Amino acid sequence: MTTHILILCTHNSARSVLAEGMLNHWAARLGRDVRAHSAGSAPSGRINPLALEALQNAGVTSGGYRSKSWDEFSADGAPPLSVVITVCDSAAAEQCPVFFGGSGRQPVKVHWGYPDPSNAEGGEAGQRRAFELTRQAIGYRMLQLLALPLETMERGELQQALAEIGRN
Asked: How many domains does the chain contain in total?
């Protein structure tokens, strides 16, 4: 059974897209039945081109991404979520809608904050560097997540493991 993970950021244009791309990339490479999705509380309607460039430069497929509302994941027919990860501080502070996991249980929620690379100083070169560093940091955490036995972990154990990844 596929483990579905939702990554949230306010605009769903940069950090959450980087996380979705890296998690799906690593899951496919490692043969894990894990599927990442991303969404935002106030989606911008566009993906930052530097996020797509950072994914492409890392050999990650960058097609098919769209900036979408988190409402899609609380609607009928939404995938059963096991984990919800917020990756920006403003989304972490917002009241999330109710998401449902398998068997009608709430998914485990965790916050892994990253500075917004689109606000980096140094013009386009500085932003490009910030997007790459953010992609690398997110990719490393996604590898740590995929090292967990997600299918067999109890809810509390999973919450603790994900919080520990966020502290490292």
From this structure: 1
